[in-house]
Structure formats: structure tokens, C-alpha cells
UniProtKB/TrEMBL annotation:
The organism of origin for this protein: Kribbella sandramycini
Keyword annotations: Membrane, Transmembrane, Transmembrane helix
Keyword DNA-binding: no
TM region positions: 43-64, 175-195, 215-238, 353-373, 379-397
Protein name: PH domain-containing protein
Length: 494
């Protein structure tokens, strides 16, 4: 039985630095607001004592947490004891551990530390399926990874992929661009309010746009925010994927990446059940895709991680994505590219067309109603939106229908669907533990149904959407023989 160990004592210094950052972020705008009504010396007298108290308090609380936290890795379990007031004892048996991920934000990297997240892949509200050790030294984190993932080493059997700087050209095609752009606009307005400059900012914009139609001004501002979003997406790509490498270690796939916050994510090959080749719309137009792992123990993270831990290859040329998918599965050709997919009935296209047009018309009608009530500018916006949205809705419905398909190749069941995010998933047939069949009243009238292959890996289910009801039953039975035999009465007669 191994001895109990403590976290690294530099945790106190890390907490003090974090406290200083929080105090500065809150103190600067507060001091500016006070100074605008009095003077800076008075503002500092009000702000500095709480800032010092916050920093000292953060360090003291972290020292207590460090004293009250200890962990132990034994032959059959990983244990963590922690708690400031109530002592918490948490245990994971070694055979349930599915992942050991190492993460280091910029502050941890300065001190040579990492956060170790030991997971079972089980999702519970209380997070009982994970143990997080924050912080430990990088050497200790690597030791824990090797010990808990049996067979993991620092040696590689070969590098499957590494960062090509040219992949950054796909970053602006992400749907995160408008989010970053309009988020930046909101941040500017908020900061200007902190410093009492919001009215001056609005007056400045109005003076620049005097004599220009309001609709044109709004379009220019939207374009500027999109440019900011593009720049932000480039920076986000560099932060997330700098120094990216996908290595095959004995029995393990390991992804390492990150500029400021570094991440090391390990996937045991014995837990791998397939791959998902994902083609977001913008990337697909440029002939690119990313590769995600379908593996047990890689469900979405429930902590403060901002990224998904299942991505093996970022958005890259589609040909490379297919080669990486094949290499990960140790196949000559990727099942996602080799399978001949069965097309879905034309009724599935009509269903998608009606939904897309309805969704496009809702904001148009809403803006029109508000325009009649408030201002004609909104009616102009509604007209512009209708001209842009309705054709786009038809094209997306058509693309969504063309993306539908399912098939079998070797030991893999392949499903494909999605227009804005086309997903082609290859799932091992022996990894399917059940089928979930769903048929709404509208699908029943069209003779369609959605068949979901249930698995313990990945997202938990991979769906064949709007397939012919009878053909889908036959396919499900042939994909996993005998699983549906007791229930193969036609759902179309229900």
C-alpha cells in the first residue's frame, strides 16, 4: 500500500496570483468609477484594502485546502481526501479509470505544475466519476498518467499527425466567428460604461454616421464585428492547437496541444469503439474535416474545460482526416470513407424543407410585426432577412437531405447526417448494446423513423435519421443480428 501524498505546496502561490488577477479585474473599473466622482487617491483608499484582503484571503484558504488534501494511488484504487469544513473521501477503483488528462494554464506553467484529471467516463451531477489533483508537479503528473493507464509510456510507436500551420486557414469558417465578434462589441460597450464613456462612444459613432441610412450603418458595424471575430478565431486556433501532436504509444493514443494552456489527453485503444469524421459547413466547403474518437470514458467534460477531449485531429484537409481515421482504427481504409451508404426516402427532404422554411420565416414575421408597431427600419431588415434566409433555408434543407445515409462495412456500422455539422460516424458493431427507435406522428404519416444505435462510448447513441421505417428495421437487424429479433414487428402498423 502506497503512502498518502500532498499536492504541491506552490498551490498557495498560485492562489495568490489568481487572487491578484481577480482583484485587478474588479478593482480597476471600480477605482475608475470612484475616481470619476472624486479623485484617484480617494478611489485607491477605497479599493486597495479590499484588494489586499482578497489576495491574502485566497492564499490562506488555499493553504488550508492544501493541508486538508491528500491522495494515494494503490494497487487497486485511487483515493482523494479533501474538504475545508466537511471531509470528503472519494475512491475510484483502478479498473474503472478510463482517462488521465494533464492540463496546465499559464500560471501553472510558470510554477512548473499541472492539474491531473482522473476520470471513469461516468457523468454524475456530483462529479463522482472523477478525481482532480490540482496542482502537482509535471513529473508527478506524468508518473500518475503512466501508472494509471497501464502501458502508457513516454516513448511513442510513431507520430500519426502533427500541426501544419496551414490548417489555420480553416479557423475563420467556424461558427464561433460571429460569437466572438458580437461578444467583443458587447465587451467594448461594457468597458466604456465602467469608465463613464459609453455616451461619448455612442455620440462618436453617430457623428461618423450622420446622413447615412441606419440600415447601412448597422450592416457596416456587423461587418466590422465579423472582422474582429475572424481575428479572434485565428487567435483561438493558435491557443488551442499550438504544438499539436497525435502519437501512438503502446496501447494508447495521446494528443498534446496548447499554447498558453497546455493539454495532454490519453485514449486507451482498448476503449476505442470507432471514429467520427465531422465536417462543419464552412470547413466542408473548403474540403476539410476533423476526427473525433468514439471511446468509452470520453463523454463531455463537466468541469471548467472549454474544449472537448475527444478530438484527435483538428479541422484539416479531408484526405488527411480519412487517413488519420484509418490509422487510428488500424484499418487500411477509413470505414467512414469506404462504406456505401443507403440514401433515405424523398419524404425526408420534404420534412427538412418544411422545418427549414418555418424556422427562417419566424424572425422575418417577428421583425415585420415590430416594424409595423415601432419603425419602418425593422421592416427593411425583415425584407433583407427574407431575401437572405429563405434561399439559405432551401439550400440547407437540400444539403441536410443529401447528407443522410447509413451502411455497413466490415465490422463497422456507419451513419451520416447533418447540414451545418455533417457527422459521419463509424461504430464497431459489437459496440452496439441496443437500438432506440423513435417515430413521431409526422414521421409515421411519411413512413419514416429514426433509429439510434445505443453504445457505451462517445455520445451514447448514433442516429439514422428519417430512414424508411421498414428498411431501417431490416438494417438494424442485419447490423447487429438477434438484438431486435424479439421486437421485429413492423412499427408502421402501430
Amino acid at each position: 500500500m502506497s503512502d498518502w501524498q500532498r499536492l504541491d505546496p506552490k498551490a498557495v502561490a498560485v492562489a495568490a496570483v489568481l487572487g491578484a488577477g481577480v482583484a485587478g479585474a474588479a478593482g480597476v473599473p471600480t477605482a475608475a468609477g470612484i475616481a470619476s466622482g472624486t479623485s484617484w487617491p480617494v478611489a485607491l483608499l477605497w479599493v486597495v484594502p479590499p484588494v489586499v484582503l482578497l489576495i491574502v484571503g485566497a492564499a490562506v484558504l488555499e493553504h488550508v485546502r492544501w493541508r486538508r488534501t491528500q491522495y494515494r494511488i494503490s494497487a487497486d484504487r485511487a483515493e482523494l481526501h479533501s474538504g475545508l469544513v466537511v471531509l470528503r473521501r472519494r475512491t475510484l477503483t483502478r479498473d474503472r479509470i478510463r482517462s488521465v488528462d494533464l492540463t496546465a494554464n499559464p500560471i501553472l506553467r510558470i510554477f512548473g505544475l499541472v492539474a491531473v484529471r482522473i476520470g471513469t467516463g461516468e457523468q454524475t451531477d456530483a462529479g463522482e466519476g472523477t478525481l482532480t489533483l490540482t496542482p502537482v508537479t509535471r513529473a508527478e503528473g506524468e508518473r500518475l498518467r503512466q501508472e494509471l493507464l497501464r502501458g502508457a509510456t513516454t516513448e511513442t510507436d510513431g507520430t500519426l499527425a502533427q500541426l501544419d500551420p496551414g490548417w489555420i486557414r480553416y479557423a475563420p469558417t467556424s461558427f464561433v466567428v460571429p460569437v466572438l465578434g458580437f461578444g467583443a462589441g458587447g465587451a467594448v460597450m461594457q468597458v466604456s460604461q465602467w469608465f463613464g464613456l459609453q455616451e461619448e462612444l455612442i455620440d462618436w459613432v453617430q457623428s461618423l454616421s450622420s446622413g447615412v441610412p441606419l440600415l447601412f450603418v448597422l450592416l457596416i458595424l456587423a461587418a466590422l464585428l465579423m472582422v474582429v471575430g475572424v481575428i479572434g478565431s485565428l487567435g483561438l486556433f493558435v491557443e488551442m492547437w499550438w504544438n499539436y501532436r497525435l502519437d501512438r504509444e503502446p496501447g494508447t493514443l495521446r494528443v498534446r496541444r496548447g499554447l498558453f494552456t497546455t493539454r495532454s489527453i490519453s485514449v486507451e485503444e482498448r476503449r476505442l469503439r470507432g471514429v467520427d469524421v465531422v465536417e462543419p459547413l464552412g470547413a466542408r466547403l473548403l474540403g476539410a474535416a476533423r476526427v473525433d474518437a468514439i471511446a468509452t470514458g470520453l463523454a463531455q467534460q463537466t468541469d471548467d474545460e472549454k474544449t472537448d477531449h475527444k478530438t484527435l485531429l483538428p479541422v484539416a484537409p479531408k484526405g488527411l482526416a480519412d487517413r488519420i481515421a484509418a490509422a487510428v482504427l488500424r484499418e487500411e481504409v477509413a470505414p467512414t470513407a469506404a462504406a456505401r451508404l443507403t440514401p433515405h426516402p424523398r419524404a425526408a427532404f420534404g420534412r427538412r424543407l418544411r422545418i427549414a422554411v418555418t424556422v427562417a420565416l419566424v424572425p422575418v414575421l417577428l421583425l415585420t410585426g415590430l416594424g409595423v408597431w415601432l419603425t419602418g427600419v425593422l421592416i427593411q431588415l425583415a425584407a433583407v432577412l427574407a431575401v437572405l434566409a429563405l434561399p439559405a433555408a432551401v439550400l440547407l434543407a437540400r444539403e441536410s437531405y443529401r447528407s443522410l445515409g447509413h451502411g455497413l462495412t466490415g465490422n463497422y456500422l456507419v451513419t451520416r447526417s447533418g447540414a451545418l455539422r455533417r457527422s459521419t460516424a463509424a461504430l464497431q458493431r459489437d459496440g452496439v448494446i441496443g437500438w432506440r427507435i423513435r417515430q413521431t406522428i409526422f414521421q409515421r404519416r411519411l413512413g419514416l423513423a429514426t433509429f439510434s444505435a445505443v453504445t457505451a462510448a462517445g455520445s451514447g447513441a448514433y442516429s439514422i435519421r428519417d430512414a424508411d421505417a421498414d428498411e431501417g428495421l431490416v438494417f438494424a437487424e442485419s447490423a447487429v443480428p438477434d438484438l431486435l429479433t424479439p421486437f421485429t414487428t413492423s412499427i408502421t402498423t402501430g
